Each structure stands twice: as structure tokens, then as C-alpha cells.
UniProtKB/TrEMBL annotation:
Keyword tRNA processing in annotation: no
GO BP field: isoleucine biosynthetic process; L-valine biosynthetic process
Catalytic activity: 2 pyruvate + H(+) = (2S)-2-acetolactate + CO2
Superkingdom classification of source: Bacteria
Pathway info: Amino-acid biosynthesis; L-valine biosynthesis; L-valine from pyruvate: step 1/4; Amino-acid biosynthesis; L-isoleucine biosynthesis; L-isoleucine from 2-oxobutanoate: step 1/4
Pfam family, one: ACT_5
Protein name: acetolactate synthase
InterPro entries tied to this protein: Acetalactate_synth_ssu, ACT-like_dom_sf, ACT_dom, AHAS_ACT
The family this protein is said to belong to: Belongs to the acetolactate synthase small subunit family.
PROSITE patterns xrefs: ACT (PS51671)
Subunit structure: Dimer of large and small chains.
EC number(s) given by UniProt: 2.2.1.6
Organism taxonomic ancestry: Bacteria, Bacillati, Bacillota, Bacilli, Bacillales
Keywords: Amino-acid biosynthesis, Branched-chain amino acid biosynthesis
């Protein structure tokens, strides 16, 4: 959901673990208050899996895909 604190909580997950977000794109999808965020981080495959798990625990995060 497009709430003011969501970006802060997501970036905090990366910062607390020492991961660098190399790119971030945020677009509001429609008028329902849902935004789409695409980010790129420098990490290993295992670290990415752990990060995805942490992101999925956030209440306002509806979906997480690892590419």
C-alpha cells in the first residue's frame, strides 16, 4: 500500500543488513492506493532469498518477486 512509511521500512531492511540498493523505481499503479516498487540490490542469491522473506513480513507489502 502507498503509505508514507513503507519506503522507509523497506530501505531499513536493506540498511540494517548492510546491503546497498543500487536502483529504485516507484510508480503509483492506480487510484486504489497501491504502488509498485522495483529495486535492485547488490547481494548473493542466498541473501536475496532472506531479504525477500523479510520484505514479505511487512504488513503494507502485498507481493515480492525475486528476479
Amino acid at each position: 500500500h502507498n503509505e508514507p512509511s513503507v519506503l522507509l521500512r523497506i530501505s531499513g531492511i536493506f540498511a540494517r543488513r548492510g546491503y546497498y540498493i543500487s536502483s529504485l523505481h516507484l510508480n503509483e499503479r492506480d487510484t486504489s492506493g497501491v504502488s509498485e516498487m522495483k529495486l535492485t540490490a547488490v547481494c548473493t542469491e542466498n541473501e536475496a532469498t532472506l531479504l525477500v522473506g523479510q520484505l514479505k513480513k511487512l504488513i503494507d507489502v502485498l507481493q515480492v518477486n525475486k528476479l
